[in-house]
Amino acid sequence: MNPAKAVALAIVFLISAVSSGINVEAANDARTDTDTGYLSEKWHTGLGTGVGALNSIKTADIDIDGEDELIFGNSQGYVHILDWDSSNEGWFETFHTVDMGGPVKGMEIAQIDDDPQLEIAIGYNWNADSGKVKIIDGISLLAEANWSSGVSWSHTQWTEGWPYGLAMGDLDGDEKAELAMSGDRGFLWVVDTDKPEIYVGRDITYDEAEWYVDLGAKTSGGNLENTWGLTFGQFDEDEATEVAVGSKQGWVAVFDGQTEEMQWKYDMDGSSGADSLCYSLHAADLDGNGIDELIVPQQSKITVFVDGDRDERVSDNDVKSGYGLASENLFGNSNEELVVADGSGNIRIMGLSGSSLTTYQEWSGGFPMNTGGGVTISMNGHDDPWIVHGSDAGIVRAWEVTSQTNHALAWTSEAGENDNLLATLEGGSNYGVDMANLDDDDNLEIVVGSGSGRIYVFDGATYETQWVSPQLDKIPIGIAIGDLDSDGNNDIAVTTGIPGEPKGEDGNGGEGYLYVFERNGDGFTEAFKSGNIDASLGVTISELDGTNHPEIGIATGYLEIIEATSGTTELHGAVKVWGYGGSSFSQEWTSGDIGQIVGGIDSGDPDNDGDNELVVGTGGDNREGSQANAEVRVYQRTGGSYSLDGSVMNTARYTAYGIDVGDLNGDGTEEIIVGTGEKGENKPRLIIYDGDSHAEDYSKDVDTNSIWGIEVGDFDSDGEAELIYGTSGGELFIYDGIEPGTFEAKTSALSNRAGHYGGIAIGNADNDGAMEMAVGSDAYLWLFTTEGQTNKPDLAIEGSEISYLPENPNEDEDITINLSIVNYGGADTAKWRVKIYDGDPDAGGKKITEFSCDATEENQRDGCKALSNGESASFEVIWYGIQTTPGYHEIYGLAEDTNQPRQETRFSNNKDYTILEIEEIPNDKPVVEATIDKTILWVDEAARVDAGNSYDNETTDGEMDRLDGNADLTYRYYFDGSWTTWVSDYTWDLSFSTPGEKEILVQTRDERRKESTQQVITVEVKANTQPVAILKSNITEGSDGAFITFDVSDSYDPDYRAELEYRFNFGDNVFSDWVKEGQTVRLYRNAFFTGPNGGELQLDSGEEVVRNEFGINRIFRLMNGSNAAIANLNLGEGLFLLEVVDSQVTTNGYNYTLPELFDEKIFSAQLMAREIDESGADDILASSWSPLIPIRIYLPENINPVAKAEAGIFINGQGIFSDILKSAKTGEEITYSAANSYDPDGDDSKLEYSWSIVNGQGFSINLLGDKNSKTFNKIYNTPGTYIAILTVTDERGGIATWQATVTVSDSGVNRGDGEEDGYSTTMLAGIAGVAVVALAGLAMGLKRMGGGGGDDFEEMFEDVTPGPLELNCPNCNGLISITTTQRPIQVGCPMCGSQFVIRE
Questions:
Q1: How far, in Å, CA of 1044 to CA of 1033, rounded?
Q2: Three-state DSSP class for 285?
Q3: Where are the extended beta strands (E) located within 1173-1243?
Q4: Which residue in 237, 465, 543, 1252 is a FRET match for 666, CA 20 to 30 A apart?
Q5: pLDDT at 4 over 70
Q6: CA 271, CA 251: separation in Å to the nearest integer?
C-alpha cells in the first residue's frame, strides 16, 4: 500500500468532520467517541445490505498505485473502500466510514484538483428529508476542502433529501471540475468542486449554484421527482460536454454544458402519466464514432439514444429495471460494450449493432438487486476485465470476462470464499450473537446469525470463517452456546423468527423454530430441528431443574390478524422450556399464552436462592383501545413445573426486550437489568431491579427508540462489572456497574439496533490478554477490545495541579491560571492542546481560552514541549477580568491529542478541574424598561423594541441610557425561540416566523456584566390568510344584450390586513385585468394570466380587447354606489363594475351576446380577489375563484318585421315611390322596391322577400326571377290596375305583408281594330304551332347530335319540356305560359283576359 495512504487511513471519517480509519488500530478511533482507556474496535465483518444501489459502486485506481480499488455504499449509510491484494487476487477492506446517517446511493469518481489522485463524491441521505454530498481524496481519504461535513442543497424552505444523481467533469471549459447533482426535488444543480459555497455554512443555496434548473418547468412535465438519472456525455460534435437527466415520471432532458440551454426533451412513457422510473442514465460510445450514446433504463425496457439523438432510438424490451450500467472496451475493438445489471440479478454484456442492441452474454449474478444494484468494471490489476456488482443481500461478486462469449466467477465477498480477506453477512439482521469455545484450540469462536437464515462461525483469534450453516427457516434471532447433551462439547442452540411478522388470516406468518447444531469434525451438523414453536426472539441456556442436562429457555410471540378488514387482531406470547432427554430434544414446559409477545429472555439466580430462574420481558399492548405496559416476569422451577417468582415488574413502557441478569453492583447478588422501547412521547427506559424484591433500584430515560441490547460483565477486567447497552440508533454505551450513572465510554453509530435481541457477548476471544466484546446489529458484527492503549500517548490533567493568582480575585481582576499536562502513555507526543473552560465542557461549560503546542515547530509559547512517558509540561493562561463573573466557578482543563491522525485512545483522564471563587464588587442591578412600537403584527413583519429608558445607578448614573445618544449598557433580546448575543444597542428590530401569542424578553447588563431581570413583552402575531371573493349580480337572467350589474362588495379579507383588488371571469371567454375601487379597467377576450396569487395579465399573448359596435375599446370602472360622483344613478350600496361611455360612468354593467344559432345560453361568472400591499411585501395572497353565478341569456319574443312595398317611375333619374301609383302609362318601366322594409329587433340584411302581382281580373303575373328580389322593374303593355303584394320574413320566421297598387293607363299608341294587337286567333295558333314544332325539332336535333337512343331523347326532352312554353299575348303583349302537352287547349292571357285556343 502507498505509505502516504497508510498514514492517512488512520483518520476518523465522522459525519461532522474528517474521515474514517482503515486498519485495526485506526478503527479504535473510527467507532469510538469516548474511550476510557479500554474501548477499541478490533475487528468487524459484514458489508451491509443494498450494496451499490443506483450505481453507488465503482472501481478505479484512486490512489494511483496501478491497481483498482473497489468503492461502494450501502443502505445502512456506510462507505467501504476495498484495496487490491495482488498476492491473493482479491480485495480486502481498508476503509469503513462511520454511519453517514442514511442510505448511500450516489457516487462518482473524477479528478477535480491538481494532485494526481482521484476524488470520490458520495451522495447520501443524512437525516430525514435532508441529504448531503461529500467529496474525499483518493489517497488520504480525508474530505476535500469545503466538503468536510458534507454539504446540503437548500431551496431555502426545504432541502434535497436524496442527492443520488451525481456527475463530475469540466462543463464550462475553465479546466476546473464541476459537480452536478440531481436529487428528489426535481432540480438540477451544478457547483464548482473547489468552492461550492459562497456564504458561510454547510449548505449550497440556489443562488450560490452555477446551475439551478427546475427540470419540471423546463420539460413542461409538471413537478418532477427523483431525478437521479444523471450523466455527462458528448452527445454531438461540438466541444461542449452535455448533461443528461432522467426522472421518476419519465422525462429525459439533455442540456448544453456550457450554455445551460436545453437541447431536447423526451417523455419516455409517451405522456401516459405512468411513472417510468428513469433512475439511471449512462453515456458510452457504443458504435465507436466518437459521439456518445445515451442509455436510459426503465422498469420495462432499456433504450439507447444513438449519438444522443432524440429521434434515433433503439430499445430492448427484455431488459427489465436494468439500472446498473457500466461501459468499457471489453473486447479490444473500436467501441465500448455496455454492461447492464437488472433487478433480478442478471448481468448482460450488450453492444450496438447498426440499429439494434445485441446481447453477447447474459447470466445470473446469483442475488437480486431490487434496490437498483449497480455494476462497475475493473480494468487494472487483472489480465482480463472484471465485472463487479453488489446485491440486496450485501454480497459483492466479480466476474472475469475472458472472451465475447465466456465469463467466470473470479471473486466473491461470501464468507470463507476469498481467503478470509473479508466476509459478507448475507442479508444483514445480525442480531443473534454468542461467543464460546467450539473446537479444540484455546480460542473462542464468535457465532452470529444473518437475515439470509444462515449461521456464521468465526475463529476468535484469526477471524477465519470456520463454518457457514445451511439456510434455516426464518431469521436466526436467538443464539446460545452450551453443552446441551453433556457430551463434553459445546452445542449451538438457535431460535428463529422474523421480528414483527404477523400471522395472517391464511394462517401463515409468525412461525419460529428451535435448531441445535453439534460439533462434527471441523464443522457442525444439525442435531435437531423442532416444529413450529412460534416466532422466537430470544434464547438462553441454563440448568433450571437440577438434572444432568441444561435447559433451553425460549421467548416467543407474534401478532395474529383475525380479520384484516376490521383490524381485529390478537397478541400471543409464551415462555417455553426445552431440554435434552437422552436421545433427543423436546418441550418440557410452556407458560401458555400470556397475551403479550415475549421478546426478551435471560437466566440467572436473581433471588440468590441457589437455583436459576428465567427472566423474561414482554411487549405490552399498544393496539388501539389498549395501553398495557410491558412486563418483566421471573419464572422458577417448582416441583415438576414453573411458576411466577415474586411480583411482575411494570416497566411503564412498551417492548421490554432488553433483558440481562448479573451482579452489577458487586454485592454478591444479581440484579435484573431491563431495556425497553418507547411509549407515546416517553423515551425508552433503562431500569435496574433488585433481583429478590423486584424493587426499582435505578432508572433513566434514554434518547433513542429502543434499548433491547443489554449486557452485564467485567469487560475491562478491573474486577467490577460494567453496564453495557446498545440503542436502536446503533450506539453502544458503557457505564460503571456500581454507579450506573457514571459514564465510561460510547461508540459512534455502529449500525442500527446495536446488540438488540441479546446480541452482545463478552469473552476472551483470542485467549490473550484483554477481554473482547462481540456486538451484533442491523448489518455488521463488531468486536471491541480493551487492549491497545499502553503503546499510545495518554494525556492527563490533574485538578490538584491547577492553580491561579491572585488567590482571592474579584470580578475586575485578571486571573492567571497555571496548568500542567502529563503523558502517562507509552508513546511520545509532540502535538497537544489544552482547552480551559468555565464549567464542565461536556455539560455546557464556556470556553475561556486554549494553549496549543506543536513541539515540531519553532517559535512556540513558553511551556510547549514534547512529552515522553511520564513527562509533564506546565504553562499559564490569563482569564481577563472583563470575562469573569462573580461567584462559584469550576475551572476545567481539557487535554487533547492534536496529531493527525489522533494517536491517543484513552480519554477518561483528559479533563479535571479546580474550584475558584470570584468576589463580587458591590454593584446595583440595572433596571430594564422596554417598549415595542406595535403589539399586533404579522408573520415576518418587523417590529422595534426600544429599551432606551433602561438605566443603572453606576453605569448611567441613574439616568436613562438614551440621554447621551449612545448605549452605555448592553442588551439582549429573546424572540422566535432564541436569544441574541449581548449587543450595545437599546433598540432592536425583530420579527416572528409563526403566528400566535409571543413573548419577547429584554434584558440589560451593566459594565460589570450584572444582569437585570428579564422584562416580558407580549405581542400577537397574525398570519396572513386568503381573502374571500364573493360575486353578486342584480339579475340572474336577461335578454340578449341586456346589461348585468356585478357587485363585489361582499368580498372580504378575513384578517382585515389589506384592501382588495379584483378580476372578473365573465364565463364567455372574457376576463378583466386586476382592478380596485375607483380604477378603470379594460376587458379582454382570450386573456392569459401567469404567476402566483392569481397571476398577471400577459399582454401580446393572443388576447383581444373587447370593443363596442363602433370598434371603440369598452372601458369599465369599479365604483362604490355611495360615491357622490354616481349618486344620481341610484345604485344603492355596493361596489359595482360599470361601463364608462364618453368619460361618464353609466348604469350599464356587462352585457352578454348570444352566439349564432343559440336561442338561450347560461354563462357562469366568477370573481377572484387579491390583497393590495403598497409596501411591496411578498406575502400578499389571492382568493380562490368565487362560486359560479349562472347568468341565463335568452332571445326576447320576436317582433315581426315591417313590410313596405312601393312602386315608382324614374323620370330623368328621379323616382317618386309610393304604395299607390296612378300615373303609369303602358310601355313605361315601373320599379318595385321593398327597401324601406325593416326588422325592429333583428338584422335587416337577413330579411327575405317574396312578391306577387295580380291584374284587375285577379290573374297572377309570373315574375320569374324577380319574385324574391328586393327591387325589380316591370313594363305593362295593357292598361289596368295591378296589385303587387310583398311578403317579408325575418331570420326568426316573423312575417309581414304590404301591397302596392299601380294603375296603368293607355299611352295612346294605336294597336288596330278588333283584337288589340291585330293578331287573329288563327295567327296566334299558328305561332304557337311553329313554336311547338321548333321545340320538337330542337330536341330531335340534340338527340342526333348526341348520338343517343330513345331513352336519351326522352331524358333530353324531360330537361327541356318541364319549363313553361311562353307566348306573348297578341292583345296586350302579356306573357302566356303553357305547361301541358294537351292539344287543343284554351288559354287565357293573365294580363288582359283575352281567350285563345291552341290546337297544335
A1: 7
A2: coil
A3: 1189-1194, 1206-1211, 1214-1218, 1220-1225, 1229-1233
A4: 543
A5: no
A6: 9
